[in-house]
Amino acid sequence: MAAESENLTLVQAVRDGLHAEMERDEDVVVMGEDVGKNGGVFRATEGLYEEFGEDRVVDTPLAESGIVGTAIGMAAYGMRPVPEIQFLGFIYPAFDQIVSHAARLRTRSRGRFTCPMVVRAPYGGGIRAPEHHSESTEAMFVHQPGLKVVVPSTPYDTKGLLTSAIRDPDPVIFLEPKLIYRAFREEVPDDSYEVALGEAAVRREGSDISVYTWGAMTRPTLEAADNLEGEIDVEVIDLRTLSPLDEETIVDSFEKTGRAAVVHEAPKTGGLGAELIATLQEESLLYQEAPIERITGFDTPFPLYALEDYYLPEAARIEDGIRDAVEF
């Protein structure tokens, strides 16, 4: 008998993944601002409070450091908390807890304690939100040893990656691209399943150039690749996990095409694109045929409504960057 599935949006897949793991393991606890009775600001936890009760779906004060600090203590003593930060731009008060404690707990205790905790946060721009609601600072967490950083781009991957993250023995920063929370639907199995952390996905095969991206930028990148069909044969790699990087898939693609571009909505300077380029230089320099293009957000604070669409890479700008790399 074929496995049953449901046609879900990305945010529904988040809720489905949380529900499945809470049903499977009573140590899984959801906590955060408005995640309980209200169902979360994006309704990612809708219905969980009613089903699992206030002891496992905990409405917290507006105190990000307290939310994450409490979750670290719970994780150290065997629970699997999933704290939600309402927006990535609100996470900075908890940054000390994440990098000074969660990321170091295994090393500090010489393996006596681990920190099986998943910090969920909607991230990225494009929804006409106020200041602090559109941050894309994933590179800050990638830079920290001891953390895994995951960014899904499809509903199927969202449920599978979230399941893997919750079951992982170490802390995971799980960033959800809210621009595509409800942008499209995909068949998602009803049963629990895992998508392995640390494995990229080849979303489109090509021979002329490798384009690396993740999160909400995957869709405009694929659109740009389709628009260039017949002119340039574009391979699109969706990283899915930013730390640890799937260096094998990244390097293999580049050695096939010899040209590359990186697309991300974070500012250009110090973004993850620079780390990807450095990796390709170290591992595959003799395969390189042209400078690697970075198609990114700008080195400015994220703008408000009037300039938001200009700031975010879109298909036309991605096409121009791909042409620059191929025509060099």
From TrEMBL:
SMART domains: Transket_pyr. Residues 8-183 form the Transketolase-like pyrimidine-binding domain. One of its GO terms (biological process) is sulfur compound biosynthetic process. The keyword Oxidoreductase applies. GO terms for molecular function: oxidoreductase activity. Keywords: Oxidoreductase, Thiamine pyrophosphate. It holds the Pfam family Transket_pyr. Its cofactor is thiamine diphosphate. The keyword Metal-binding does not apply. This is Alpha-ketoacid dehydrogenase subunit beta. It comes from Natrarchaeobius chitinivorans. The lineage of its organism: Archaea, Methanobacteriati, Methanobacteriota, Stenosarchaea group, Halobacteria.
